[in-house]
Amino acid sequence: MATEDTYALCRCGRSAAKPLCDGTHREIGFREAGPGAEPRPAGDGGTTEKGRKA
Ligand code: FES
C-alpha cells in the first residue's frame, strides 16, 4: 500500500529550510504554544498566535 510523504512546517521561524522544519527548534528550545500558554513576542523565535496548529 502506497502512502503519502509527510512534511513538517517550521513554526519556530529559525529553520534554514523554510517553510519546512529542519530540527533547529530543538536547538533553540522552541516550545509550542498550547491552550493557556502565554504568547511570546515576535522575534523571540515563537509565535504570537495562541493555539495555532501547523
Ligand atoms: S519548527 Fe522551526 S525548525 Fe522545527
UniProtKB/TrEMBL annotation:
GO terms for cellular component: cytoplasm. Residues 27-54 are annotated as: Disordered. Keywords: 2Fe-2S, Iron, Iron-sulfur, Metal-binding. Residues 1-31 form the Iron-binding zinc finger CDGSH type domain. One of its GO terms (molecular function) is metal ion binding. It comes from the Bacteria. This is CDGSH-type Zn-finger protein. It comes from Actinomadura coerulea.
